[in-house]
Amino acid sequence: MKQAVHFGAGNIGRGFIGALFSQSGYHVTFVDIADQIISKLNEEKQYQVNLATDAHESMTIDNVSGLNNLTQENEVMEAIKNATYLTTAIGPNILPRIAPLMAKGIAERIKSNSEKLYVIACENQISATELLKGYILESLDEDTKAKLEGQVYFFNSAVDRIVPIQNNQGSLDVLVEPYYEWVVETTETIPPVEGMKIVPDLAPFIERKLFTVNTGHAVIAYLGYLEGKETIDQTLQDEEIVKQVQATLGETGAYLIKEYGLNAEEHQQYINKIINRFKNAYLNDGVTRVGRSPLRKLGPNDRLVRPAVQAQKAGLSYTNLAKAMASALMFDFNGDEEAVKLQSLIKEKGIRAALSEVSGLDENSDITNEIVRHYDQLKK
Ligand SMILES: NC(=O)c1ccc[n+]([C@@H]2O[C@H](COP(=O)([O-])OP(=O)(O)OC[C@H]3O[C@@H](n4cnc5c(N)ncnc54)[C@H](O)[C@@H]3O)[C@@H](O)[C@H]2O)c1
Ligand SMILES: O=P(O)(O)OC[C@@H](O)[C@@H](O)[C@H](O)[C@H](O)CO
Protein backbone atom coordinates (compact mmCIF):
# COMPACT_ATOMS: atom_id res chain seq x y z
CA MET A 1 0.00 0.00 0.00
CA LYS A 2 1.22 3.53 -0.82
CA GLN A 3 2.23 5.58 2.21
CA ALA A 4 1.63 9.20 3.19
CA VAL A 5 3.18 10.76 6.28
CA HIS A 6 1.26 13.77 7.56
CA PHE A 7 2.51 16.08 10.34
CA GLY A 8 -0.39 17.52 12.38
CA ALA A 9 -3.29 15.22 13.31
CA GLY A 10 -5.51 18.23 14.07
CA ASN A 11 -8.60 19.56 12.35
CA ILE A 12 -7.26 20.00 8.81
CA GLY A 13 -4.95 17.00 9.12
CA ARG A 14 -7.69 14.53 10.01
CA GLY A 15 -10.63 16.40 8.47
CA PHE A 16 -9.11 17.20 5.08
CA ILE A 17 -5.61 16.22 3.92
CA GLY A 18 -5.35 12.87 5.74
CA ALA A 19 -8.90 12.04 4.67
CA LEU A 20 -8.10 12.68 0.97
CA PHE A 21 -5.01 10.44 1.12
CA SER A 22 -6.98 7.66 2.81
CA GLN A 23 -9.73 7.95 0.19
CA SER A 24 -7.05 7.75 -2.52
CA GLY A 25 -5.80 4.39 -1.27
CA TYR A 26 -2.93 5.54 0.94
CA HIS A 27 -2.08 4.42 4.45
CA VAL A 28 -1.75 7.67 6.41
CA THR A 29 0.72 7.93 9.29
CA PHE A 30 -0.19 11.01 11.31
CA VAL A 31 2.66 12.56 13.29
CA ASP A 32 1.74 14.76 16.24
CA ILE A 33 2.67 15.60 19.83
CA ALA A 34 -0.88 15.02 21.11
CA ASP A 35 -0.51 11.60 22.74
CA GLN A 36 -4.21 11.07 23.21
CA ILE A 37 -4.91 11.47 19.47
CA ILE A 38 -1.96 9.27 18.52
CA SER A 39 -3.04 6.46 20.88
CA LYS A 40 -6.61 6.62 19.63
CA LEU A 41 -5.50 6.50 15.98
CA ASN A 42 -3.50 3.35 16.74
CA GLU A 43 -6.33 1.75 18.73
CA GLU A 44 -9.27 2.58 16.47
CA LYS A 45 -7.43 2.72 13.09
CA GLN A 46 -10.31 4.75 11.67
CA TYR A 47 -12.54 7.75 12.30
CA GLN A 48 -15.50 9.57 10.77
CA VAL A 49 -15.49 12.79 8.80
CA ASN A 50 -18.93 14.34 9.30
CA LEU A 51 -20.28 16.97 6.93
CA ALA A 52 -21.83 20.12 8.35
CA THR A 53 -25.02 19.89 6.24
CA ASP A 54 -28.75 19.27 6.84
CA ALA A 55 -28.26 15.65 5.79
CA HIS A 56 -25.30 15.10 8.19
CA GLU A 57 -23.55 12.77 5.70
CA SER A 58 -20.45 11.09 7.03
CA MET A 59 -17.57 9.01 5.67
CA THR A 60 -15.25 6.52 7.29
CA ILE A 61 -11.54 7.29 7.04
CA ASP A 62 -9.48 4.14 7.52
CA ASN A 63 -5.91 2.91 7.03
CA VAL A 64 -4.63 5.45 9.52
CA SER A 65 -2.12 5.25 12.35
CA GLY A 66 -0.16 7.67 14.51
CA LEU A 67 3.35 8.44 15.76
CA ASN A 68 4.58 10.93 18.34
CA ASN A 69 7.43 13.02 16.92
CA LEU A 70 8.84 13.74 20.38
CA THR A 71 9.08 10.15 21.57
CA GLN A 72 9.19 8.09 18.34
CA GLU A 73 11.83 9.78 16.20
CA ASN A 74 13.14 6.53 14.72
CA GLU A 75 9.67 5.34 13.77
CA VAL A 76 8.90 8.70 12.12
CA MET A 77 12.15 8.48 10.12
CA GLU A 78 11.25 4.93 9.06
CA ALA A 79 7.79 6.13 7.93
CA ILE A 80 9.36 8.96 5.89
CA LYS A 81 11.69 6.39 4.32
CA ASN A 82 8.71 4.54 2.89
CA ALA A 83 6.42 7.45 2.00
CA THR A 84 5.36 8.87 -1.36
CA TYR A 85 3.93 12.07 0.17
CA LEU A 86 5.16 14.00 3.19
CA THR A 87 2.67 16.71 4.15
CA THR A 88 1.97 19.11 7.03
CA ALA A 89 -1.01 21.00 8.48
CA ILE A 90 0.47 22.09 11.74
CA GLY A 91 0.50 25.90 11.74
CA PRO A 92 3.13 28.07 9.99
CA ASN A 93 4.99 28.85 13.22
CA ILE A 94 5.57 25.16 13.96
CA LEU A 95 7.25 24.33 10.62
CA PRO A 96 10.78 25.27 11.82
CA ARG A 97 10.35 22.94 14.82
CA ILE A 98 9.44 19.81 12.83
CA ALA A 99 11.91 20.44 9.99
CA PRO A 100 14.98 18.86 11.71
CA LEU A 101 13.19 15.51 12.12
CA MET A 102 11.86 15.69 8.56
CA ALA A 103 15.43 16.35 7.42
CA LYS A 104 16.74 13.33 9.33
CA GLY A 105 14.04 11.16 7.74
CA ILE A 106 14.82 12.49 4.26
CA ALA A 107 18.58 11.99 4.77
CA GLU A 108 18.05 8.34 5.78
CA ARG A 109 15.56 7.76 2.99
CA ILE A 110 17.76 8.86 0.12
CA LYS A 111 20.44 6.36 1.22
CA SER A 112 18.16 3.41 0.42
CA ASN A 113 15.03 4.50 -1.46
CA SER A 114 15.35 6.01 -4.94
CA GLU A 115 11.58 6.52 -5.32
CA LYS A 116 10.41 10.13 -5.51
CA LEU A 117 9.14 11.88 -2.39
CA TYR A 118 6.75 14.85 -2.60
CA VAL A 119 6.74 17.35 0.27
CA ILE A 120 3.76 19.71 0.59
CA ALA A 121 3.00 22.11 3.46
CA CYS A 122 -0.76 22.69 3.73
CA GLU A 123 -0.82 25.88 5.77
CA ASN A 124 -2.47 29.28 5.44
CA GLN A 125 0.77 30.93 4.42
CA ILE A 126 2.21 32.13 1.13
CA SER A 127 5.12 29.87 0.04
CA ALA A 128 4.81 27.65 3.13
CA THR A 129 6.52 24.68 1.42
CA GLU A 130 9.33 26.89 0.15
CA LEU A 131 9.89 28.10 3.72
CA LEU A 132 9.71 24.53 5.05
CA LYS A 133 12.27 23.48 2.43
CA GLY A 134 14.60 26.22 3.71
CA TYR A 135 14.28 24.94 7.30
CA ILE A 136 14.88 21.35 6.16
CA LEU A 137 17.97 22.34 4.14
CA GLU A 138 19.43 24.03 7.25
CA SER A 139 19.57 20.57 8.84
CA LEU A 140 21.11 18.70 5.89
CA ASP A 141 24.80 18.28 5.00
CA GLU A 142 26.07 19.31 1.56
CA ASP A 143 26.32 15.74 0.33
CA THR A 144 22.66 15.00 1.14
CA LYS A 145 21.49 18.33 -0.30
CA ALA A 146 23.19 17.49 -3.60
CA LYS A 147 21.23 14.24 -3.81
CA LEU A 148 17.78 15.82 -3.38
CA GLU A 149 17.37 16.91 -6.97
CA GLY A 150 15.12 14.56 -8.93
CA GLN A 151 14.33 12.63 -5.78
CA VAL A 152 12.70 14.96 -3.26
CA TYR A 153 10.26 17.56 -4.57
CA PHE A 154 8.80 20.53 -2.68
CA PHE A 155 5.47 21.96 -3.89
CA ASN A 156 3.67 25.02 -2.56
CA SER A 157 -0.05 24.65 -2.02
CA ALA A 158 -3.28 26.39 -1.00
CA VAL A 159 -5.83 24.62 1.21
CA ASP A 160 -9.42 25.65 1.72
CA ARG A 161 -11.93 23.90 3.96
CA ILE A 162 -13.45 25.31 7.14
CA VAL A 163 -12.82 22.91 10.00
CA PRO A 164 -13.81 24.33 13.40
CA ILE A 165 -12.53 23.28 16.81
CA GLN A 166 -14.28 20.00 17.59
CA ASN A 167 -16.68 19.74 20.52
CA ASN A 168 -16.20 16.02 20.98
CA GLN A 169 -13.39 15.58 23.49
CA GLY A 170 -11.90 12.10 23.26
CA SER A 171 -13.20 11.33 19.76
CA LEU A 172 -11.21 11.29 16.51
CA ASP A 173 -14.26 12.23 14.44
CA VAL A 174 -14.16 15.58 12.65
CA LEU A 175 -16.96 17.89 11.58
CA VAL A 176 -16.07 19.74 8.36
CA GLU A 177 -17.86 21.94 5.83
CA PRO A 178 -18.70 20.09 2.59
CA TYR A 179 -16.70 22.51 0.39
CA TYR A 180 -12.99 21.93 -0.16
CA GLU A 181 -10.18 22.97 -2.46
CA TRP A 182 -6.55 21.80 -2.39
CA VAL A 183 -4.37 23.40 -5.05
CA VAL A 184 -0.78 22.22 -5.55
CA GLU A 185 1.83 23.96 -7.67
CA THR A 186 3.83 21.73 -9.98
CA THR A 187 4.53 20.96 -13.60
CA GLU A 188 5.59 17.37 -12.71
CA THR A 189 3.31 14.40 -13.21
CA ILE A 190 2.68 13.15 -9.70
CA PRO A 191 0.79 10.19 -8.19
CA PRO A 192 -2.91 11.08 -8.14
CA VAL A 193 -4.63 12.13 -4.94
CA GLU A 194 -8.39 12.51 -5.05
CA GLY A 195 -9.40 16.17 -4.71
CA MET A 196 -5.91 17.56 -5.37
CA LYS A 197 -5.88 20.17 -8.15
CA ILE A 198 -2.57 20.75 -9.92
CA VAL A 199 -1.61 24.17 -11.31
CA PRO A 200 1.63 25.49 -12.80
CA ASP A 201 1.42 28.84 -10.94
CA LEU A 202 -0.06 29.00 -7.45
CA ALA A 203 0.15 32.79 -6.92
CA PRO A 204 -3.37 33.68 -8.14
CA PHE A 205 -4.86 30.73 -6.22
CA ILE A 206 -3.18 31.30 -2.87
CA GLU A 207 -3.68 35.08 -2.97
CA ARG A 208 -7.31 34.74 -4.05
CA LYS A 209 -7.94 32.26 -1.24
CA LEU A 210 -5.97 33.99 1.52
CA PHE A 211 -7.18 37.51 0.65
CA THR A 212 -10.83 36.48 0.29
CA VAL A 213 -11.60 33.54 2.58
CA ASN A 214 -9.08 34.42 5.29
CA THR A 215 -9.33 38.21 5.05
CA GLY A 216 -13.12 37.98 5.22
CA HIS A 217 -12.94 35.49 8.08
CA ALA A 218 -10.56 37.78 10.01
CA VAL A 219 -12.86 40.80 9.61
CA ILE A 220 -15.81 38.81 11.00
CA ALA A 221 -13.76 37.28 13.83
CA TYR A 222 -12.24 40.54 15.10
CA LEU A 223 -15.40 42.67 14.75
CA GLY A 224 -17.49 39.83 16.18
CA TYR A 225 -15.12 39.50 19.13
CA LEU A 226 -15.42 43.24 19.83
CA GLU A 227 -19.22 42.88 19.75
CA GLY A 228 -19.12 39.99 22.22
CA LYS A 229 -20.22 37.36 19.64
CA GLU A 230 -19.26 33.71 20.06
CA THR A 231 -19.32 32.36 16.52
CA ILE A 232 -18.81 33.42 12.91
CA ASP A 233 -22.39 32.65 11.83
CA GLN A 234 -23.82 34.58 14.81
CA THR A 235 -21.64 37.57 13.92
CA LEU A 236 -22.98 37.52 10.36
CA GLN A 237 -26.48 38.13 11.65
CA ASP A 238 -25.31 41.70 12.16
CA GLU A 239 -25.96 43.45 8.81
CA GLU A 240 -23.40 46.18 9.55
CA ILE A 241 -20.67 43.56 9.88
CA VAL A 242 -21.81 41.86 6.65
CA LYS A 243 -21.46 45.25 4.90
CA GLN A 244 -18.01 45.69 6.42
CA VAL A 245 -16.93 42.24 5.17
CA GLN A 246 -18.23 43.04 1.70
CA ALA A 247 -16.46 46.40 1.66
CA THR A 248 -13.17 44.81 2.77
CA LEU A 249 -13.43 42.02 0.20
CA GLY A 250 -14.24 44.72 -2.34
CA GLU A 251 -10.79 46.15 -1.61
CA THR A 252 -8.91 42.86 -1.78
CA GLY A 253 -11.01 41.98 -4.84
CA ALA A 254 -10.03 45.18 -6.67
CA TYR A 255 -6.36 44.33 -6.09
CA LEU A 256 -6.78 40.67 -7.14
CA ILE A 257 -8.75 41.60 -10.27
CA LYS A 258 -6.08 44.11 -11.28
CA GLU A 259 -3.11 41.89 -10.41
CA TYR A 260 -4.33 38.62 -11.92
CA GLY A 261 -6.78 39.82 -14.57
CA LEU A 262 -9.71 38.06 -12.85
CA ASN A 263 -13.22 38.48 -14.20
CA ALA A 264 -14.94 40.97 -11.85
CA GLU A 265 -18.33 39.26 -12.00
CA GLU A 266 -16.89 35.82 -11.34
CA HIS A 267 -14.86 37.18 -8.46
CA GLN A 268 -17.99 38.72 -6.92
CA GLN A 269 -19.65 35.30 -7.18
CA TYR A 270 -16.63 33.77 -5.44
CA ILE A 271 -17.00 36.35 -2.62
CA ASN A 272 -20.75 35.69 -2.26
CA LYS A 273 -20.16 31.95 -2.14
CA ILE A 274 -17.59 32.39 0.62
CA ILE A 275 -19.83 34.61 2.73
CA ASN A 276 -22.50 31.90 2.43
CA ARG A 277 -19.98 29.28 3.57
CA PHE A 278 -19.27 31.45 6.64
CA LYS A 279 -23.00 31.45 7.47
CA ASN A 280 -23.07 27.66 7.98
CA ALA A 281 -24.46 27.43 11.54
CA TYR A 282 -23.69 23.71 11.86
CA LEU A 283 -19.99 24.60 12.00
CA ASN A 284 -20.41 26.61 15.20
CA ASP A 285 -17.01 28.12 14.36
CA GLY A 286 -15.70 30.30 17.20
CA VAL A 287 -14.50 33.87 16.59
CA THR A 288 -11.53 33.09 18.84
CA ARG A 289 -10.42 30.19 16.60
CA VAL A 290 -10.72 32.28 13.46
CA GLY A 291 -9.00 35.26 15.10
CA ARG A 292 -6.25 33.09 16.66
CA SER A 293 -2.61 34.14 16.43
CA PRO A 294 -3.09 37.87 15.69
CA LEU A 295 0.70 38.45 15.49
CA ARG A 296 0.83 36.01 12.56
CA LYS A 297 -2.31 37.47 11.01
CA LEU A 298 -0.83 41.00 11.21
CA GLY A 299 2.42 39.80 9.62
CA PRO A 300 3.75 41.51 6.45
CA ASN A 301 2.77 38.68 4.09
CA ASP A 302 -0.49 37.69 5.68
CA ARG A 303 -4.20 38.32 4.90
CA LEU A 304 -4.46 41.92 6.13
CA VAL A 305 -1.17 43.78 5.67
CA ARG A 306 -0.14 42.37 2.30
CA PRO A 307 -3.37 43.19 0.44
CA ALA A 308 -3.39 46.69 1.98
CA VAL A 309 0.20 47.32 0.88
CA GLN A 310 -0.53 45.92 -2.57
CA ALA A 311 -3.73 47.99 -2.87
CA GLN A 312 -1.85 51.14 -1.91
CA LYS A 313 0.87 50.41 -4.50
CA ALA A 314 -1.84 49.95 -7.14
CA GLY A 315 -3.52 53.23 -6.16
CA LEU A 316 -6.55 51.40 -4.74
CA SER A 317 -8.56 51.87 -1.53
CA TYR A 318 -7.41 50.16 1.70
CA THR A 319 -9.42 51.93 4.38
CA ASN A 320 -11.60 48.89 5.19
CA LEU A 321 -8.50 46.70 5.43
CA ALA A 322 -7.10 49.32 7.81
CA LYS A 323 -10.24 48.98 9.94
CA ALA A 324 -9.80 45.19 9.98
CA MET A 325 -6.21 45.66 11.19
CA ALA A 326 -7.37 48.11 13.86
CA SER A 327 -9.87 45.53 15.12
CA ALA A 328 -7.16 42.84 15.09
CA LEU A 329 -5.05 45.12 17.31
CA MET A 330 -7.94 45.11 19.80
CA PHE A 331 -8.19 41.30 19.99
CA ASP A 332 -7.37 40.90 23.67
CA PHE A 333 -8.53 37.30 24.15
CA ASN A 334 -6.65 35.91 27.17
CA GLY A 335 -6.77 32.34 25.89
CA ASP A 336 -4.54 33.18 22.93
CA GLU A 337 -0.80 33.47 23.60
CA GLU A 338 -0.22 35.81 20.64
CA ALA A 339 -3.15 38.05 21.64
CA VAL A 340 -1.66 38.39 25.13
CA LYS A 341 1.77 39.22 23.63
CA LEU A 342 0.24 41.74 21.25
CA GLN A 343 -1.60 43.56 24.04
CA SER A 344 1.53 43.77 26.20
CA LEU A 345 3.52 45.01 23.19
CA ILE A 346 0.95 47.77 22.62
CA LYS A 347 1.04 48.69 26.31
CA GLU A 348 4.83 48.75 26.36
CA LYS A 349 5.58 50.51 23.06
CA GLY A 350 2.40 52.29 22.03
CA ILE A 351 0.18 51.45 19.07
CA ARG A 352 2.42 52.72 16.24
CA ALA A 353 5.65 51.06 17.37
CA ALA A 354 3.85 47.81 18.24
CA LEU A 355 2.11 47.70 14.86
CA SER A 356 5.33 48.48 13.07
CA GLU A 357 7.18 45.68 14.88
CA VAL A 358 4.50 43.12 14.03
CA SER A 359 3.58 44.18 10.49
CA GLY A 360 6.75 45.73 9.12
CA LEU A 361 4.78 48.89 8.28
CA ASP A 362 6.54 52.20 8.83
CA GLU A 363 5.34 53.93 12.01
CA ASN A 364 4.27 57.02 10.09
CA SER A 365 3.17 55.50 6.80
CA ASP A 366 -0.20 56.37 5.27
CA ILE A 367 -1.46 52.85 6.01
CA THR A 368 -0.40 53.11 9.66
CA ASN A 369 -2.11 56.52 9.94
CA GLU A 370 -5.32 55.00 8.59
CA ILE A 371 -5.12 52.02 10.96
CA VAL A 372 -4.53 54.29 13.95
CA ARG A 373 -7.44 56.52 12.91
CA HIS A 374 -9.76 53.47 12.92
CA TYR A 375 -8.18 52.16 16.14
CA ASP A 376 -8.95 55.44 17.93
CA GLN A 377 -12.52 55.38 16.62
CA LEU A 378 -13.14 51.77 17.65
CA LYS A 379 -11.73 52.49 21.10
CA LYS A 380 -14.39 55.20 21.70
N1 LIG B 1 -9.06 24.66 10.38
C1 LIG B 1 -9.23 25.25 9.23
O1 LIG B 1 -10.36 25.66 8.87
C2 LIG B 1 -8.08 25.41 8.28
C3 LIG B 1 -8.35 25.50 6.89
C4 LIG B 1 -7.30 25.68 5.99
C5 LIG B 1 -6.00 25.71 6.46
N2 LIG B 1 -5.77 25.59 7.81
C6 LIG B 1 -4.37 25.62 8.21
O2 LIG B 1 -3.99 24.30 8.60
C7 LIG B 1 -3.01 24.36 9.63
C8 LIG B 1 -3.49 23.56 10.83
O3 LIG B 1 -4.70 24.14 11.30
P1 LIG B 1 -5.74 23.31 12.16
O4 LIG B 1 -6.98 24.12 12.21
O5 LIG B 1 -5.80 21.90 11.68
O6 LIG B 1 -5.03 23.36 13.60
P2 LIG B 1 -5.10 22.30 14.78
O7 LIG B 1 -4.66 23.03 15.98
O8 LIG B 1 -6.44 21.64 14.79
O9 LIG B 1 -4.03 21.20 14.37
C9 LIG B 1 -2.66 21.37 14.52
C10 LIG B 1 -2.07 20.08 15.05
O10 LIG B 1 -0.66 20.24 15.10
C11 LIG B 1 -0.19 19.61 16.29
N3 LIG B 1 1.09 20.18 16.68
C12 LIG B 1 1.37 21.38 17.23
N4 LIG B 1 2.67 21.51 17.47
C13 LIG B 1 3.26 20.37 17.05
C14 LIG B 1 4.60 19.90 17.02
N5 LIG B 1 5.63 20.64 17.45
N6 LIG B 1 4.84 18.69 16.50
C15 LIG B 1 3.82 17.92 16.05
N7 LIG B 1 2.54 18.30 16.05
C16 LIG B 1 2.26 19.52 16.55
C17 LIG B 1 -1.29 19.86 17.33
O11 LIG B 1 -1.20 18.94 18.38
C18 LIG B 1 -2.54 19.70 16.46
O12 LIG B 1 -3.01 18.37 16.49
C19 LIG B 1 -2.80 25.87 9.92
O13 LIG B 1 -1.73 26.34 9.16
C20 LIG B 1 -4.09 26.48 9.43
O14 LIG B 1 -3.95 27.83 9.07
C21 LIG B 1 -6.77 25.44 8.72
O1 LIG C 1 -6.07 28.97 10.21
P1 LIG C 1 -5.75 30.43 10.37
O2 LIG C 1 -5.51 30.80 11.79
O3 LIG C 1 -4.71 30.89 9.42
O4 LIG C 1 -7.08 31.22 9.92
C1 LIG C 1 -8.31 30.99 10.56
C2 LIG C 1 -9.38 30.66 9.55
O5 LIG C 1 -9.60 31.77 8.73
C3 LIG C 1 -8.99 29.46 8.68
O6 LIG C 1 -8.60 28.36 9.45
C4 LIG C 1 -10.13 29.07 7.72
O7 LIG C 1 -11.12 28.38 8.41
C5 LIG C 1 -9.59 28.25 6.58
O8 LIG C 1 -8.49 28.83 5.99
C6 LIG C 1 -10.66 27.95 5.54
O9 LIG C 1 -10.05 27.34 4.44
TrEMBL record:
Top-rank taxon: Bacteria
Domain Mannitol dehydrogenase N-terminal: 3-188
Listed EC numbers: 1.1.1.17
Entry keyword set: NAD, Oxidoreductase
Residues reported in the UniProt entry to bind NAD(+): 4-15
Molecular function GO terms recorded: mannitol-1-phosphate 5-dehydrogenase activity
Family stated for the protein in its record: Belongs to the mannitol dehydrogenase family.
Protein name per the record: Mannitol-1-phosphate 5-dehydrogenase
Organism per entry: Heyndrickxia acidicola
